[in-house]
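Troubleshooting: if your tokenizer reports a length mismatch, compare against these two reference records.
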Amino acid sequence: MMQNAQKEILEVLLNRPDLLQTVKQVIAEPDDFTVETYRAIAQRIWQCAGQSDQPRLTQVLAGVETVSLSDLITAMAQCGADRSNFEQTLTGALDSIKQCRAEQVRDGVRRLVSTAAEQYGKDAETAALLEYQSKWQPNQRRAGGA
């Protein structure tokens, strides 16, 4: 699900780079793409967007180092253009990303509870919540603290 959503996001951005700011509300950096090839494409889109408010597909392709990546970008752009419902596709893809991330957090909590149950026995639930809280406390240096 995450890979397909990432692909759809890139297909949209290759056709509608003006929607990058909407994407950045959920995916702040190209490094957030989990598929290496998609990450490379995202890096190129972000880079071109830094040079121009409305980067064109030709600009994205101009900096690509391999023919195979260039072919993939062209195919993705065409797939997005054929679909053409950019805003709806982007909304669905971003929602999928949010759902996947929420599921990852829930899985993390489940693992913590399981680990705590092994470590603390019958008081595992309380211990798991305390352990979870300790991992999610804000970093005081980032939050403007000393």
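Reference record two:
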Amino acid sequence: MKKYIPLLLLAISIALIFCACGASDSGVSDSEIKRDILSHNKYIEDMGLSVSDMNIVSSEKKDKLDLYIFEVEYTAENSTLVYKGRMTLSYMKTDNGWTLKKWENEEISVGPKGDCDESIPIEYMRAEYARINDKNKTDNAGIDYEFELTSDLTGVSSEEGKSKEHSFTFIVNGRENRICTWKDSWSIDCVFDEDDGWIVESAARERLSETWDICGTYTLSNDKLDSVLEITSFEIDPSTRTATITYSWQFTSHVDTQSAEKGVTYHSDGPETVAGRLSSDEKYMVLDGNLATVYICGKYSSWDVKGENSDNLGVFLDAYELGDYWMYKK
């Protein structure tokens, strides 16, 4: 049995040599290689990445030159970014051990850690609505939005990493006030930026429908006039920004004016249907007449007749020399 002991010890030694993996058998530890990768790749250092995975593809020892050369593939990442690279590191034997003397880095890929979250396009849409409302001087404090994701498409990922492109389609239902509701379609393309993460590259909005809950009977009675306006139909074509209204009216002046005799009741001959464009800011439709001009206001308008309409919505009557009034809905 004793004669086999040297052979057994030799076999164990050979097994230990071949089982050694990574860089430990060279005297250069894996942690040293990771540290040197971080120290000699300015990009991942500046981006605040940490090496999360490392694979020593090959190692070569040149005894005559006292060199140890490693080829390493590695992954570095943070919360949003994944960097994959390949680095060749040459270590030289010194009195203090192995010291890195030369390195060459090759970038394999840089990309997002995950797909774009839908909160990115939603925040973009909210900001756009706020900008539009501010431009139109809309009182948007009470506007409610409901975002419905209808399409969520990522670009084609590859072995090098996830796609840097992500497209979304949303349907947005908005209630702007007690009268106006609408539905928009959004197509939004997002791209991954290495510095800023996922950002919106392009966006397109289309108004699918808009409804003004304006139908009903409106009246006005004071010491100057009596007036009734009945709206039986009101429809908006969002593609042309025109409205079609069906209505009937009557008007009585209690004083003589240039266009009306005192005590005479003027009225339409049954329901009238007219089509016309909305105002340039798309807040109201105008009905011009000889006796008065009527403004059908579906959005906040700037005619502030104090004490008569707190939200500046509904039907506004410009009765010329008889005055300006908000009519009351029955």
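Descriptive notes for reference record two:
- Residues 216-329 form one domain.
- The chain is about 15% helix and 50% strand.
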